[in-house]
Amino acid sequence: MSEADEALQANPYRQVGRVAEGDRFVGRGRLVRLIQSAWQEPGRPSNVRVLGYHRTGKTSLVRRALQTSSVRRGDLITVWLDVGTHDSGADLFRSMTQRVMDEFRERGRHGGTELTEQLAAINSAVQRDGEWGDLREAVRAFFKALCRDGYHVLAVLDEFDRATTTFTRLAEFQLLRILASDPMFSLGLITISRRDIESIEHDAAGGSILGGVVATRRYVGMFNDEEADLMLARAAVVGIGLASVREEIIARTGLHPFLLELLCNRLVDLHQTVGELDVKAAYEQEAPTFDRQFAQLWQNIEADSKGRATALLSRLALGRALESESVELSQLKQMGVVSSGPGSPILFSREFARYIQMCAVDH
User: Fold this and answer.
1) Nearest Cα to 181, choosing from 204, 215, 205, 157?
2) 314 neighbors 358 (Cβ within 8 angstroms)
3) Which of 6, 4, 3 lies closest to 272 in space, CA to CA?
4) Which residue has the higher pLDDT, 326 or 123?
5) How many whole angstroms from its chain centre is CA 198?
6) Could you read off the pLDDT of 86-103 as tens digits, one per residue?
7) What distance in Å separates the CA atoms of residue 287 and residue 14, rounded to the nearest whole number?
8) C-alpha dist (Å) from residue 2 to 8, 10, 268
9) Containing H/E element for 42?
10) Contact 154/190 with Cβ under 8 angstroms?
11) 253 DSSP 8-state letter
12) How far, CA to CA in Å, does 27 sit from each of 60, 109, 255, 261?
């Protein structure tokens, strides 16, 4: 077999677990357009919070929106920061101005040597170790100079849940709030997290001020049926059809993006090894990963709702009717964990229901 033929036989799901880019990104067209609407109009980008549970594709969605945007604005500088990789709030703000400075120089989008030198001088002040007050004023001066010359910044803060440990005082959230709302600046903010900003702020600093200016919520939940079919269809590049076992697959994974790709990956591996499509065997090999995913999802829901939503999930898993709609049920629907069934709401997958039933027995 030639190298070209060998390349064609590579498992199309082998990158499972990584950020989905290019052909690996499936569907989400409406959500992509909603994210892109934050910066496509002239002027200051709007603020957006992207919310979703672990491994539902939040980061992939925002990256896709940036990479496929048809609008190319010479006045807009976009920077991406992973909050969890920073030791402190001060470290995050230093990274933010440095990334903007680097992008400003690389793209050559500046108003002449004078502005470049001015920004470089202010950025040098930001990068120096010093008191919080000095850093705050230098950061303000940096973004004020950009705004004054007609430039806008879109700052994407990924893993914003980690702000609970990266930020240690309300003043750091306050500076973000000012940059993302005050007319003297022109910064738009996109946060990517599991939890709402208000909850993150409260745990980090005992108050909430940023949430009020990042009011637009975009929820990233499970795939729809069409998107699941597109994921399954990727197996065709290696001559495998998964449509015949779709029902078996979805019973285990639901429409969960990561779990669906995970099981498809194992199915293709097994088929290429033994020549059969055996969903049961594929699931058994991936069962530990499924259980870890379910455990993390359960723990996150329990922590976020202080146990109220997990009590609701237990009732659904055990087939008990819910007395009424609730804030917790609405949130679970928005995040894709629960969907509306023909009668009462149902959990996103049969195996997740089984996991909850087992937890109930253990306790």
Assistant:
1) 215
2) no
3) 6
4) 123
5) 17
6) 999 999 999 999 999 998
7) 18
8) 10, 13, 21
9) none
10) yes
11) H
12) 11, 33, 13, 14
Tokens of 20: 């989905």
Q: Is the pLDDT of residue 110 over 60?
A: no
Place of tokens 């379910």: 294
pLDDT in tens, 123-173: 999 999 889 999 999 999 999 999 998 999 999 999 999 999 999 889 999
Nearest-10 crossing angle of helices 308-317, 327-334: 70
Look at residues 141, 139, 157 and name the one whose alpha carbon lies nearest to residue 149.
141
What is the per-residue pLDDT for 8?
46
The SS3 call for residue 77 is strand
Judged against a pLDDT cut of 90, whether residue 308 lies above it is answered with: no
Which range of 111-125, 173-187, 348-362 scores highest in mean pLDDT? It is: 173-187
Cβ proximity of 254 and 228 under 8 Å: no
Is the separation of the CB atoms in 296 and 194 below 8 Å? no
Structure-token match 């609407």, residue found:
37
What is the average pLDDT score of the chain? 90
d(CA 304, CA 195): 7
Instruction: Output DSSP code: residue 201.
Output: H
Nearest by Cα to 97 from 118, 112, 113, 72: 118
Structure tokens belonging to residue 362: 């253990």
- Angle among Cα 93, 99, 102 to the nearest 5 degrees reads 140
Sheet with strand 48-51: strands edge to edge: 76-82, 152-158, 187-193, 48-51, 216-219
- 280: which 2 tokens? 């049961």
